[in-house]
Amino acid sequence: MSASGLPKTAAVLGPDGLQALIAALAARGMEVIGPVERDGAIVLDRIAGIADLPAGRTDRQEAGSYRLADRDDGALFGYAVGPQSWKRFLHRPVETLFRVRRIGQELAFEPPRETPPRTAFLGVRACELAAIAIQDRVLLGGAYVNTEYAARRAQTFLVAVNCGDPAATCFCTSHDTGPRAHSGYDVALTELLVDGRHEFLAEPGSDSGAALLAYLPTRPATAADWAAAAAVAARAAANMHRRMPSEGLKETLQAHPEHPRWEDVGQRCLACANCTMVCPTCFCTTIEDHSELDGLGAERVRRWDSCFAGDFSYVHGGAVRTQTRSRYRQWMTHKLAHWWDQYGTSGCVGCGRCIAWCPVGIDIAAEAAAFVESSKREEDAHGIA
Amino acid sequence: MTVSPYLPLPYRIIAVRQDTPDTATIDLQPVRAAIPEPAPGQFTMLYMLGVGEAPISVSGVPIEGAPLAQTLRGVGNVSKAIIRLQPGDEIGVRGPYGTTWPVAEADGHDVLFIAGGLGLAPLRPAIRHVLAHRDRYGRVAVLYGARTPADILYRDELVLWRRMLDVQVEVTVDRAQRAWHGAVGVVTELVSRAGFEPDRTLAMVCGPEVMMRFSVQALQGAGLPSERIYVSMERSMKCGTGLCGHCQFGAEFVCKQGAVMRYDRIASIFTVREI
Ligand code: SF4
Ligand code: SF4
Ligand code: FES
After folding, report:
1. Domain shared by B89 and B168, yes or no
2. Residue with the larger pLDDT of the pair A248 and A121
3. Same domain for B157 and B233?
4. Is the domain of B115 the same as that of B222?
5. Smallest CA–CA separation between B125 and chain A, in Å?
6. Domain holding B253: CATH number?
7. How crowded is residue B21: how many other Cβ atoms within 10 Å of its Cβ?
8. Which entry of A229, A376, B12, B126 is 20 to 30 Å from A67 by CA?
9. Domain boundary pick from B97, B125, B153
10. Does B244 contact A286 at a Cβ distance shorter than 8 Å?
């Protein structure tokens, strides 16, 4: 940081500079993953250059709905988050852990030996950086680690993009996880569309990020560029109207496992598990045996699981959580309350995916607010301050 | 890449003992490397090729030349398949995981073991430990309830314990034919008969959740404080390592903060349904 508080090495690049950035990452042997439009949604996939990005497109998101629309400014990153998160590349939906073979009576366990490829993520939003930091704690911070996640994470280069146009479902400001990225990236970009110019302010967040920027066609950032970037973040924050209550939320949820509100939401929830699949922090998995045809070998395969699945809590004799309200209680209480005890953070970063992708439009922020409200009312009625 | 915590070690079955019609104890020997020595109360994940894994508590710790012993009731696919195996067959073992029975904290106390059904299996290493260091403990009582006389686990060992003159062993069954002349009724009824001193007793309780609930009630009714009551929780487990999320019980992971848990730490959620 310089005396003015600005990182000295910040630079400004144009669309050609961004193209050069993607090319430079590829030249360093990295697979570059970024946002692309497919089947009516912005998803994450391999990109070769800026032509693959959803230029001039945006997303309109509401509880239970997501659709794309045009925008007239030609922005390359003029949308919020789609159904996929970067979780699918780090904590994969399906992962083979090892193979087992039976040779006579003996068992041979064969762990895979390959190192994952180097990968660059382009367009990581602030809430998603926060989600990755949370998954780092969950999957790497304990006595045992998810070794496959660890290996991929170590090979990942993160190019963040600060949000300029959040969706109506976003509420990162409630969790202080956005709309501007503060840490955890190699390079952070802010898309600047001022006075007919189309540029990006690029801030390095690591040595390798700084080294990459030094290699690109850029110009030094001016005070005007910083002001423009700050205005983008301020506008994004001002446009965010959804709020997750924080005051007393953890305590309220933990103190009221029998609250009637659970039945209320349990009546609406389909237990479809969409919310857990799209959530960038949900980490639950199961492990299965995939037998080989000769019956002498198997692969141990880990796949995403969901606390909404009927057999998730199965112990012999039956599931512990048979009712949908018990499962919704598990998901929401874990995410917003127990997570604090377990990992010292909320399990929600305010990305809004679970709200948009819930087929019946259940809104976790609204549910939390209703919960806090009605518990408060109840306590008032009972004369408890 | 570091080794996955999910990778088991091959173990050879050296003996299979049918304890009851649906329950067997297997003795296991490492083929090469062994897992770290389990402490009383810990469990392992046992892997059966082509079927999968199940969390199984250790019922005999491998000390002084004894093999690792694990007792399985044939209720799930994995346990059913494993108890059908023969000596010489190999399975995968990883662990040990979880917390331990408070045999150290119980030092200087009277110790009350309350077991229901298969719950005697995870308690056995703790009972053996206490009896092997008999002089460190005050009165020792083992209260055990089984469904029927045919479901009584470790008969020979119960007889052996009862023959020791300074251990109280009480066995009750839920229902019995004429051939049984012992107690009939739930294990909680034995609690009052045990006649312990609440201010110097520590209780370790293991069995089905309802049985533990009633046992805890009986113990508290007799004046035992919650912080000297330990229970062993059961939840779905896929990893044993705090990574899969399945075993959550309130804010606790049963595979990390359990299975053995001090009752006062979970009292607020213990009776909540479907938690
Ligand atoms: S709970 Fe919903 S809003 Fe929060 S991080 Fe998960 S998907 Fe995003
Ligand atoms: S809250 Fe919505 S998305 Fe989540 S399981 Fe229920 S119906 Fe599905
Ligand atoms: S068994 Fe997987 S987290 Fe506890």
Report:
1. no
2. A121
3. yes
4. yes
5. 23
6. 3.40.50.80
7. 10
8. A229
9. B97
10. yes
Question: Where does residue B76 fall: left (phi above 0), alpha (psi -120 to 50 degrees), or beta otherwise?
Answer: beta
Position B192 scores a pLDDT of 81
The mean per-residue pLDDT over the stretch A49-76 comes to 97
The residue extents of the domains of chain A are 11-238, 249-381
- The CATH number of the domain holding residue B26 is 2.40.30.10
Range(s) of the domain holding residue B50 = 9-97
Please answer yes or no on whether A315 and B7 come within 8 Å at the CB atom.
Answer: no
Residue B102 forms part of a structural domain: no
How far off is chain B from A94, nearest CA to CA, in Å? 13
B235 CA to centre of ligand 3 in angstroms: 9
The reply to whether B1 falls in a domain is no
- Residue B76 covered by a domain: yes
Name the domain boundary from B75, B97, B119. B97
- Tell me, yes or no, whether B147 and B17 share the same domain: no
Domains contained in chain B, number = 2
Nearest CA to ligand 2 atom 2: A358
Let me know whether B218 and B242 are in one domain: yes
From chain B, pick out residues whose CB is under 8 angstroms from the CB of A341.
251
B104 assigned to some structural domain = no
Pocket mutation for ligand 1, best pick of A128, A274, A348 (most atoms within 8 Å of C-beta): A348
Distance, in Å, from the CA atom of B163 to the CA atom of A133, rounded to the nearest integer, reads: 59
Alpha carbon of B225: minimum distance to chain A alpha carbons (Å): 23
Beta-carbon contacts of residue A238 (< 8 Å; ≥ 6 apart): none
Which of chain A's residues have a Cβ under 8 Å away from the Cβ of B50? 289, 291, 295, 298
Q: How many CB pairs under 8 A join A and B?
A: 140
**B90 and B114 both lie in a single domain:** no
Q: How far is the CA of A63 from the centre of ligand 3 (A)?
A: 32
pLDDT at A6 over 50: no
Average pLDDT, chain A: 94
The rounded distance, in Å, linking the Cα atoms of A29 and B265 is 51
Contact B237, B231 (CB under 8 A): no
Ligand nearest to the CA of B257: 3
Site to substitute for ligand 3 among B4, B53, B99, B255, most atoms within 8 A of C-beta: B255
Distance CA A186, CA A27 (A): 17
Strands B167-173 and B183-184, bridge-based pairing: parallel
Q: Same structural domain for residues B215 and B259?
A: yes
List the one residue out of A260, A275, A300 whose CA is nearest residue A353.
Answer: A275
Please tell me whether residues B64 and B151 are part of one structural domain.
no
Q: Quote the distance between the C-alpha of residue A146 and its chain's center.
A: 18
Quick one: CA torsion of B121, B123, B124, B130, rounded to 10 degrees? 180
Is there a contact between A205 and A274 (Cβ–Cβ < 8 Å)? no
- From the CB of A348, is ligand 1 less than 6 Å away? yes
- Which atom in ligand 2 lies closest to the alpha carbon of residue A327? 5
State the pTM of this model: 0.95
Q: Looking at ligand 2, which atom is closest to the CA of residue A354? A: 3
pLDDT at A167 over 50: yes
Cα B13 to ligand 3 centroid, rounded to whole Å: 26
Tell me: the pLDDT tens digits for B210-234? 999 999 999 999 999 999 999 999 9
* pLDDT means over runs of 10, chain B (275 residues): 87 97 97 96 97 97 93 95 96 98 97 98 98 97 96 97 95 90 91 88 96 95 96 97 98 97 96 92
